[in-house]
Each structure stands twice: as structure tokens, then as C-alpha cells.
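Students often ask why inverse folding is considered easier than folding. One informal answer: many sequences map to the same fold, so there is more than one right answer. In these notes we will look at a single instance of the problem. The structure comes first.
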């Protein structure tokens, strides 16, 4: 989907019509979380577009009752969040062609009070910034260790960033000029878009302001595992797209996953089967757990020992995701979306 051909930016010096902020929310079967999300959006006063991907819980009707324009995705086409965001953006620009900025949101998130005011003020003073994000907070971090890990993961450094996440305030003009998100990516579409925006001369920024409340709703180990498989797929595909210098997009992450989650355990297994006294070499994993835990502890992370243990487990899931991408590429069969809830 090429957005630049359907939503051209205003001409130089021409004030855009309906200039302001629109909101695009994507979701499926989010229930009460979607209602909470849309209510927060409506309170901001701008146009809201909700993109539904085959909900069976009445989400489209709930969105219409709250005043959102609803776009129903054609589910005969393989779903991706990237396609949902693109179609929502296209619908927003058709209905409000002068919208200068778009706040993208996942349907399980809720805007934090004051976020849009702070983010808009920042963009007003920094014309070189294409997209700005803030602190995503987990709504129920104590509900499970997996939710807690998500909350820690969201807390990225403030300042210039390489990428944003699914929740982001972005200028319409550079988004359209870049052609939007890549429809065919099943994961990692936001960092990939940011690679292209930065290549075009734009910058990405993260503010210290609270941006959204998120509800991961992860209560089972398998959900966490699948989320990491999806990350591994995104790493491998991102490296395949933009891994060449100088960007080296996701190359280090892919290499790390393959080494710790694939090559090293295979070599250790072969060595142990060949001569069982070499089984002591498996100590490399507890030593790596200890090294990373101490590093996290020095950095002031709240649960360093737990984080390190899950990081180490996650390498195996990421390796599985990377292999899934490479297998699909070799067989010319694209992977279906990897969902964890």
C-alpha cells in the first residue's frame, strides 16, 4: 500500500485544512480495553478511526457508539498490524485531509493524561522530529512476572531513539512520503518504518512523559514464549531488509539469538554426546545468567535475577523465530502472524 500517492502533503506555504491531531486505533476482540482506549481518545477532541480485524465481541459497534469512524479489514487478506495502521491512516486522511499529526494506538492501550499536549508542544518546537513516543506503562505489572517484564521493557532511554513502538505520535507528511508501514511485516514494522524515516533525514524521539497504559494480559509461560518467537522473527526479517552497513538493523539481535539459542546449544549437545565429560561446558549458560544479572543489578534494574533468567530463555524462542523467518523465505511461504494473546 503506497500512501504517498493517495495522501499528498500540503503544498509549500499552504496551511493544511483541519490541521490538528487525528487518532488511529487498531484492535480485535479487546472488549472493555478498547472502550477505555476509545473513551480516552474521544476526550482529546480530534477525529478517531478504529480499524477492526475480525472482532466477534461487538467491538465495531462499540466504537461507532463512541463516535469513532470504523474500518473493517478484509480478513481474506493475511492480517498484519502494519496493514491495519495503513488503512486507518488512509481513512483518516480521506475524511480529514489536513490532519497534520497522527497518534497511533493499539486497542489494549489508553492515552495517559497530558500526553498529547506534551508531545504536540515538543513537535512544535522541533521541526526535525518526525515521530515522538513516551513511557508506556503496564496497567497490571504485579499480575504476573510476564507483565512485570513488559513494564520494564517499555522503560527505554529518554532522548533521540532509533525506533518507536506501536503507540506513537507521528507527522502525517513524512509518514505518507515514506509510504507508510510495510504491509507484509508480521512484526517489527515500527522499527522498520523508523529506519526509512531516519534515512530520509528525520529524527525519532522519546520523551520522559507517560504516554499510554498497556494491558499485556500475559499469565502463561507459553504467551511469553510466543511473544519472543515473534521478536526473533522480527529481528531476522529486519536484518534481511536493512542489515547492511551503516544501519545494521537488528543484526546484533539476530546474531545473539542464533548464537545463544541455536548454534551454541547444538555444539554443546554434539560435544557431550561425543564424550560425556564435556558436559561441564554447559556451565556457560548459568555463567551467562550470572554475568547478565550482575550487569542488570549494577544498572539498577528492579528484578535483575529474574530478568536475566528470562533473557536467557528468550534466546531460544528468538532463535526459533529467526529460523521460522528463514524457512519461510527459503520456501517462499510467508509466516502467518504470531499472536500471544
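Output (designed amino acids):
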Amino acid at each position: 500500500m503506497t500512501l504517498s500517492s493517495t495522501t499528498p502533503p500540503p503544498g509549500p506555504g499552504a496551511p493544511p485544512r483541519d490541521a490538528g491531531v487525528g487518532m488511529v486505533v487498531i484492535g480485535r476482540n479487546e472488549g472493555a480495553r478498547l472502550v477505555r482506549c476509545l473513551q480516552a481518545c474521544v476526550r482529546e477532541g480530534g477525529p478517531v478511526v478504529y480499524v477492526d480485524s475480525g472482532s466477534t465481541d461487538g467491538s465495531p459497534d462499540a466504537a461507532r457508539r463512541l463516535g469513532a469512524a470504523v474500518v473493517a479489514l478484509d480478513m481474506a487478506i493475511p492480517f498484519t498490524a502494519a496493514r491495519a495502521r495503513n488503512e486507518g491512516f488512509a481513512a483518516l486522511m480521506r475524511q480529514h485531509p489536513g490532519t497534520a499529526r497522527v497518534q497511533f494506538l493499539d486497542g489494549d492501550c489508553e492515552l495517559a493524561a497530558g500526553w498529547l499536549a506534551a508531545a504536540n508542544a515538543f513537535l512544535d518546537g522541533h521541526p526535525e522530529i518526525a515521530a515522538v513516543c513516551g513511557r508506556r506503562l503496564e496497567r497490571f505489572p504485579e499480575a504476573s512476572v510476564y507483565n512485570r517484564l513488559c513494564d520494564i521493557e517499555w522503560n527505554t532511554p529518554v532522548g533521540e531513539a532509533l525506533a518507536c513502538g506501536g503507540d506513537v505520535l507521528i507527522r502525517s507528511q513524512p509518514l505518507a512520503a515514506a509510504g507508510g508501514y510495510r504491509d507484509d511485516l508480521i512484526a517489527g514494522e515500527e522499527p522498520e518504518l523508523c529506519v526509512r524515516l531516519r534515512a530520509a533525514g528525520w529524527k525519532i524521539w522519546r520523551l520522559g512523559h507517560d504516554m499510554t497504559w498497556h494491558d499485556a494480559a500475559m499469565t502463561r509461560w507459553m504467551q511469553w514464549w510466543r511473544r519472543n518467537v515473534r521478536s526473533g522473527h522480527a529481528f531476522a526479517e529486519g536484518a534481511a531488509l536493512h542489515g547492511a552497513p551503516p544501519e545494521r538493523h537488528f543484526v546484533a539481535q539476530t546474531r545473539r539469538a542464533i548464537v545463544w539459542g541455536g548454534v551454541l546449544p547444538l555444539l554443546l549437545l554434539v560435544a557431550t554426546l561425543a564424550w560425556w565429560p564435556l558436559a561441564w561446558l554447559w556451565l556457560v549458560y548459568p555463567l551467562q545468567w550470572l554475568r547478565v544479572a550482575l550487569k542488570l543489578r549494577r544498572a539498577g534494574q528492579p528484578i535483575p535475577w529474574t530478568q536475566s533468567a528470562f533473557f536467557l530463555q528468550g534466546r531460544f524462542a528468538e532463535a526459533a523465530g529467526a529460523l521460522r523467518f528463514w524457512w519461510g523465505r527459503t520456501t517462499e511461504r510467508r509466516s502467518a502472524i504470531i499472536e500471544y494473546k
